[in-house]
C-alpha cells in the first residue's frame, strides 16, 4: 500500500496533486496555537465547498434536514441531495421554500414509513452532500 501512495509515481503526486478532482482542495499549512496537534483548521469557505456524503437514517434525519434548510451558503449546510434514483439536486439553485419542502421529506416519520414499505433497506436511503464540520475525518498529504 505504501508503494502505491509514495514517490512521484504514487497516487497523490501522479493522480491528485495539482489536478481538479472532486472532494479535494489545496492550501498552505500554517501553525495554529488554538487547536490540538492532531487536528487541523479548515477555513469556513473551504468547509462550505468540500462535502461529506452522509446517508440519511432515522438517527441523523433531523440534523440533515436543518442543513438542507440552511442550503449551500450558510454553514453548517448542504450542497446537494441524492435521491433513491441516483438523481442529484443542487441546493444552490433552489429557493428557501423549495429547500424547506425537500427537508420535510427527510423527517423521521417519512423514513419509518419508507422502511416499512420496502423489504430492501437500501432502497429508501437518500444521501446528503453536507458541509464539513468539526470532528470530520479528512485525508491530508
Automatic annotation (TrEMBL):
The keyword Repeat does not apply. One of its GO terms (molecular function) is DNA binding. One of its GO terms (biological process) is DNA-templated transcription. Transmembrane segments: none annotated. Its EC number is 2.7.7.6. The keyword Transferase applies. InterPro entries: DNA-dir_RpoC_beta_prime, RNA_pol_asu, RNA_pol_N. Keywords: DNA-directed RNA polymerase, Nucleotidyltransferase, Transcription, Transferase. Residues 1-141 form the RNA polymerase N-terminal domain. One of its GO terms (cellular component) is RNA polymerase I complex. Belongs to the RNA polymerase beta' chain family. This is DNA-directed RNA polymerase. The lineage of its organism: Eukaryota, Sar, Rhizaria, Cercozoa, Chlorarachniophyceae.
